[in-house]
Fold these 2 entries.
Entry 1:
Amino acid sequence: MEIKILGTSCSKCKELEKITREIVAENNINATVIKIDDIMDIMKYGVLSFPALVINDKIEVKGRVPSANEIKEILSTYY
């Protein structure tokens, strides 16, 4: 599974990355977490609200930081 966090260096973007990495580690999820902050790369996804959570190139959340439980639920649909 490939998880991408789209966003700049804003506090919400950093928070989403931190929570996501913790969930992946704590639950032994076989996934790669990548932070994408290059605006040209982000624009390829058509995302205008940050942060965004992308899993296997599907936008799951954008414009907010989901709760840890919500992230777990989203990830569980991929394994």
Entry 2:
Amino acid sequence: MQELLQTTEGDLRWVAARAALLLDVAGRQLSTLRNTYPAWDIERHRDDAGRVWWTATLRAPFTVEMMAAGVWATVRQTDAMALAATLAWQSSLLHTARGRTRVP
């Protein structure tokens, strides 16, 4: 922080704004995930042990076809990047499951 203050010549407003941006990484990640995967309700929370979990729950009714395609109704990961990777994979499976139920 001291180094940052020295390089900005004491512009405390800029330093405070920059620090706020850096601290809200999780909020930006959550917003990005929600915008990227609108088929899922995505939350970030702490369990009773204090561990942080990123959870996504499928919004659509869960069907037998989805289950057969390997889609999970709920996904839980320890960080945003792991959840993003899992949701990319699940979205692909979901697309496959939906394609199977369409009439040609």
